[in-house]
# Entry
Amino acid sequence: MKRLVFIVEGETEEAFVNTILRPYFQGCGLYNPVQCFKIKHTQGGMHKYSYVRNDVLNTIYEHDVIVTTMFDLYALPHSFPGYEESQTINDHLKRVEFLEAKMKEDLELSQNRQFNNYIPYIQLHEFEALVFSSPNGFEALFEDKEMNFKGIREVIDTFPNPEDINDSPETAPSKRMQKLIQGYNKVTYGVSLIEYTGIGIILKKCPHFKDWIEKLKVCLVKIKK
# Structure
């Protein structure tokens, strides 16, 4: 049985995989072992693409493994393959798909072979976008005095697809969170908010995220057969 290995950006993504995605795949009848680890040489984010490539290469050749990633598009390092060219792509979905393809291309060119067991994923525009899928988590975790509920609902109503929330330094999803919730901390609240929201709502609201999950499910189903 093949293992599904996630290489992620930080603690929140690691907790998300272990707490949300592992049970989700099991609930789909896919009991393949799921493992997750953070990229090495990280201090809460990706600083050099070379670190990512090394971590993927250290994993991709292991026996019976499928490797995927989870990194934020927001603040992606300029050393990322295809980064400069991607800045000319105005459509955010096409841009992130281009960068994912470049990740795979770079790895395959460096090794002079194809890796059908590698499914790169970049989150539009960052992890916090997922929690804007529904007000449920905010209502469950916070009191009125702790946050701006009206502001949260305005963001959710303005962006029916949370992946459309942009990545400017002032209005990226995490920046909005910091303004709307007193003492917001990604590690402390991120996964809890998603637990209350429910993975089903996130899959319905976030098409690029859903496409990634479906690709992984298809891959695991093929292996199971």
Summary: Strands lie at 3-8, 34-38, 65-72, 118-119, 122-123. Residues 108 and 114 are 5 Å apart (CA to CA). The chain has a mean pLDDT of 92. Residues 92-111 form the longest helix (20 residues).
